[in-house]
Amino acid sequence: MFRHLIAKKSFKHQIECFCPDRHHAGPITIHRGDIIELTNERQFIPDRGWYSLINMNNERHFYIALKDLDNYYDSGELVSLVDLDLKENYSKYKINAALDTGDEDTFMVFTCELKESKLLKEKIEKHLYQRET
To answer: Cα dist. 79→37, 48, 59, 120 in Å?
Structure first.
């Protein structure tokens, strides 16, 4: 799994809290463009499985079940920098093929996908650069 992920689209997540009063539990909206950083802190909860502490936009920290994280990644709601690079390359390939065949509809679809991938890629790269300095 990658250490940094970015939300490709907005979705809701139910935060689980392990405190006795469950004070921190509740729904949270992860918005398109939110950056999720997996920390090294993990916790095993019997009958629930493994949880990882994440840092969202350097503002909020909470535990998320690894199975939930995998589901969000598998469904495409969260993507990595490598995923964005691959999407960008594929979109460029499809744009070139559409130009060769004169397929305007395909050209427009993949041009929009290329723009979206580039915007998300710039945002996560900017975040990573700021973390280094």
So the answer is: 12, 25, 20, 9
- The 10s digit of each residue's pLDDT in 38-88 is 999 999 988 889 999 999 998 999 999 999 999 999 999 999 999 999 999
pLDDT in tens, 102-120: 999 999 999 999 999 999 9
Q: The whole model's pTM is what?
A: 0.87
- Give the Cα separation of 60 and 120 in Å (integer): 20
